[in-house]
Amino acid sequence: MRFMVIVKATAQSEAGVMPDDGLMEAMMNYNEELVKAGIMLAGDGLQPSAKGARVRFSGDKRTVTDGPFAETKELVAGFWIWQVRSLEEAIEWVKRCPNPMNEDSDIEIRTLYEMDDFGDLATPEIREQEQRLRAQTENLKG
């Protein structure tokens, strides 16, 4: 099963406060454990929402709002994509993670959809297109 493991933003991460040397080293060591265990498929930290934008959809209308966004607790500061056997395994790995912030913080775990989750909507043509797109994105990684 694949999961997105989401590091929630904090006031400090939204202010652009960088991790100290100890936290940086601890997180890199943790990432190395994830890679050696064959769990980590991707992961990155996100810059503060002040450097981003949000696009709202309403019918065919699009409205762009520049950051920063006020609701810090709902923002994402970083993420991993993991391949593990179960949600319980993902939880156990998250429990081993250093606190990713220099203050109280939260990490959220969400199951990613697989093509089989879409049932009959995943026609053979859609499955073929999805596989082709995955192959193309893998080639972009070089």
How would you summarize this macromolecular structure in one to three sentences?
With 142 residues, the protein is an alpha+beta fold. It has helices at residues 11-14, 21-36, 87-95, 124-141, and strands at 2-8, 40-45, 53-58, 61-66, 76-83, 107-111. The chain is 33% helix and 27% strand.
Low-pLDDT runs: none
Strand order of the largest sheet: 2-5-1-6
Choose one word for the global shape.
Answer: globular
What is the succession of H and E elements? EHHEEEEHEH
Instruction: Please work out how many helical segments DSSP would assign.
Output: 4
**Average pLDDT across residues?**
95
Rg, nearest Å: 18 Å
Head-to-tail CA distance between termini: 25 Å
Characterize the largest beta sheet: strand count, sense, and whether it forms a barrel.
Answer: 4 strands, antiparallel
Note the beta-strand portion. 25-35%
What structural class do the secondary elements suggest?
alpha+beta
The helix fraction, in percent, is 25-40%
Please specify the SSE layout and strand pairing.
Layout: E1 2-8, H1 11-14, H2 21-36, E2 40-45, E3 53-58, E4 61-66, E5 76-83, H3 87-95, E6 107-111, H4 124-141
Antiparallel strand pairs: 1-5, 1-6, 2-5, 3-4
